[in-house]
Amino acid sequence: MMGAEPLIDFRAVSMEYQSTGGERTTVFRSLGLTINAGEFACVIGPSGCGKTTLLNMIAGFVAPTSGEVLFKGQPIREPGAERGCVFQEYSLFPWLTVEENVEFGLRCQGVPAGERRDLVERHLSLVGLANTRKKYPFELSGGMQQRVGIARALINNPAVLLMDEPFAALDAITRNTMQSELLSIWKATGTTVFYITHNIEEAVFLGTRAMVMSSPPAMIAHAVQIELPHPRERTTADFNAIYRELETALYSHIDPKLLRKS
Amino acid sequence: MVESSNAELSQHRQSQVAVWKTFARRMVPHIVTRSTVLGLTGVAGAVLLWQLVLSVALVDPRLMPAPLAVFQAAVEMAASGELFQHIAASVARALSGLVIGSAIGIAFGIFTGRVAVFGFLMEPIAQLFRSIPAIAFVPLAIIWFGLGEQSKLFLITFGVFFPVWINTLMGVKSIRPVYIRAARSLGVSRRQLLRLVILPAALPYIITGVRISVSIAYIMLAAAEMAGARTGLGQLIQESYLVFRTDRMLVGIIMLGILGLISDRLFMMGVRRLFPWYGAER
After folding, report:
1. ipTM associated with this complex
2. What chain A residue is nearest to B176 in terms of C-alpha separation?
C-alpha cells in the first residue's frame, strides 16, 4: 500500500526569482518529480541549475512560486524534523560539543537526558565517531564534521535525509570513504535519501536512481534507474555505461552560456 | 605532652612546606614566563624613568610626587583601611552598572536584531547616541537622580548599554543562515530558537561588547564619582584635588588602572572557562 503514494511529490512546481535589478529568472517551470520511500535519489546538475532550490523546497526553507510540494500527501509549509538536512557548508553549532550537536533535535523535542545519551551513543557509533563526544567541532576534520552532521540529522529518525553536496568540500579519498559509509548507514536505517551532487560518478556509485537536471528553466532532463547491487565497483562496464549515459544527457542539456560562466 | 605537641607542630609545618613546594613547582613556570618577566621589567622601567625625570628636572614634588611618595601614601591608606573602602565602593558600582547595562543591552540587541520593525525604528537612535560621549550626561544625571548611588548606577548602566546593544545587534545580524536552517530542520520551535541558537551564535559579538563595556564602566565610574560622592576612587581623586594632595590623587588614578586591568583579565578568564569554543568558532 505504501508504494501507492510517493513520499515526496512535486506537482507543477514553478519558481521565479526577481533579481535586485528587477529581472525575473525562472528556475523551474511546471516541474514534476516524485521520490518514493526507501529510494536513494541523486540529482545531478551544473552549478546554478537550481538543484539546491529543489532540496530547499523539500526542506521547507523556500516555497514555490506556484504549484506545490507534497510530503506524505501533505503540502510542505515549514522545515521539520521528519526531513533531516545535511549541508555542504559548515553547519555544526560551534558552541556545542559533538554530543550536544547530535542530541540537538532530541533536546528540542524534550527527550529526557538519559534517553538522549543512549541515542547519541548509538548514532555516533553509526557514523564511526564513538569517542569524540566531548570534542568541539573546531577540533574535528572536515570529514568528521560531516559525519557528526549526518548523525545529528539521523537521530530524529527522519523519513528522508536531504543531502546537498555533503562531501563536495572533502578530499577525494575521504569522499570515497564517506560515500561507502553513507551507503551502509542508508542500508542500516532504511531511510530515504535525496542527494544533490554535481559529480556523475558519485551519483552512479550511490543512487538507486540518478536524475539529470537541465539548465534553467530546469526540468528533469533524464532519469536512470540504477539496478546495480551495492557495493558497486567504479570500474566495471555496467558502471561505465551508466556514467556515459548520464554524462551525455548532462552535457546535451546544459546551456553553453552556463558552462562558460563557471 | 609538650614534646608530642611540638612534634605535631613541626610535622604540620613540614607538610605545609611540602604543599608550598608543590604549589611553587606547579605554578612558578606558569607565572614566571617570558612575557610576564618582560612585562614587569617594562613597568619597573617606567617607574624608574618617572623617578629619573623628577630628579633631573627638579619638579616641585607637590605638583608631581615621586613614585616612592605615592607608594607611601598608598600604604598609609591601605593601613587605615581607607583605600579598600574606596575600592569596594567603586567596584560595587562598576559591577552593578555592568551587569544591568549588559542585560538591557543584550535584550535590546536581540529584540532589534530579530524584529525588523524595531530594528528600523531604533537604528537612527542607536547611531545618534553612539556618537555622544556618555560622560556628557553626567550633569543631567545629577539633576535627575542627585548625587547618591542612583545617578552613578544610571550613568554606568547607560554607558555600558550602548556598546553591548550595538555589538549584540551586529552579532544577531551576522548569524549564518545555515545555523537557523539546520536548527529548524532539526525541529526547533520559535521560542527555543532564541535560547538554543540566536543567543549562543551571537555570543562572540556579545562578549566583545561586554569587554568594551568593562572599560567604559570605569570611565563612567570615575566621571560620576568625581562629580560628587562620599566614597570611591573618583571621589578620592576629586577630594585630593581640593586639598592639593597629588600623591593621593595618583594612588586613585593608578588604582583605577589596576582595577580595569584585573577586571578585563578576570572577564576573559571567565569567558574562556565558560565558553571553551570562544575564538575558535567560524
Report:
1. 0.91
2. A91
